[in-house]
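Throughout our pipeline, every protein is held as a single compact record rather than as scattered files. Such a record has a labelled line for the sequence and another for the backbone structure tokens. The remainder of this section carries one protein's record, kept here as part of the documentation:
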Amino acid sequence: MVSVYGREIYRNPDRLKNLMGDLFSGEERIKRLFRRVLVEDKLSVKVYEIAQKPANERPPFYTRLACQFAEADCRPMEFGLEVVAALVAGLTGEKLTTSGVRQPLRPESTDKAGQKTRKRKILAQVFPVSGSRNKIVQLGQAKFDMVYVEGGTFRMGATEEQGEEAKSNERPVHEVSLAEFMIGQCTVTQALWMEVMGKNPSLGKRGGNYPVNKVSWIDCQKFIRRLNSQTGLKFRLPTEAEWEYAARGGKKSKGYRYAGSDNPDRVGWYKENSWEKCDAEGNRLWHVHEAGGKKANELGIFDMSGNLWEWCQDWAGDYDTRARTDPKGDLTGSARVVRGGCFRAVAGRCRVTARWEYVPDQSRDFLGLRLALSL
């Protein structure tokens, strides 16, 4: 169906009505959903709504689909075609292919002569950092640093230095081996988010060098897809294992409780040091702080303890004792991992092994993101 009707469906989504009716009679809700998907870039949200229904009211297919398409790195036309293929495969078991219908996906415009032309892709400039394998990425008016992290093996979870504040979800300690990767020196700033998305969702906006906040995991996936489209690079969220390894300092780790120190005041903004004034009733007011304002950790990475909880790619799940190589967490779930603590969290929540979780569509003023890049 996709290979035959793909172009027509994209140009005239109403054509899908009869096709879907033939395949899935009685599934009116599903037909409406997937007709809209072809003209709205909101698939991850729509499918996520279905996936949030109680397990006994939906097949596991929808949970997988929500995850798959929220992470997809493609444009609306190809997106729509893949949706139809996935829907058919999920409900009937029939495998469809979109080969032969992957037309140019960039929007078209018309030049002065009336000829159709593609809009030019914005490309980032990438500069090496002298004396290291780090990179500086310039996109429009926004600039950010990516830190090289050498691959290695470490003990993940509540190791001895974490003390009595370690929670049960940080255990058991287990061995993890990771390939090399890159990670953002700072969390994504409001300036970079504005450059890519054209708007700033942050609560209590304070300026371009402040971390963007009040973004959901789904928002982050949309941002990353658009960033990748504009740069030609393949950014992503870090896995939970990558995040902890980088926070610990990688192969340069000195075994600190926090990211770069045993003293949280040196490396992070948290509940006891991130308030600046009181309101009329005498209550403390907490807020996010400028990126990079505290001491960096052993790898030169800032703010991995405190300031904002940072979304990871993984579904939240329990640890076990098995050794892992490049783990990516559970295959499915209801919540995504966040790491690092935040400006209103107690110090214990800002330790390098502390874990928390939120459902993917939640956005709060203490939720942000940090980019990662495979090598």
Observations:
- The two ends are 37 Å apart (CA to CA).
- Residues 76-92 form the longest helix (17 residues).
- DSSP finds ten helices and 17 strands in the chain.
- The longest strand covers residues 142-149.
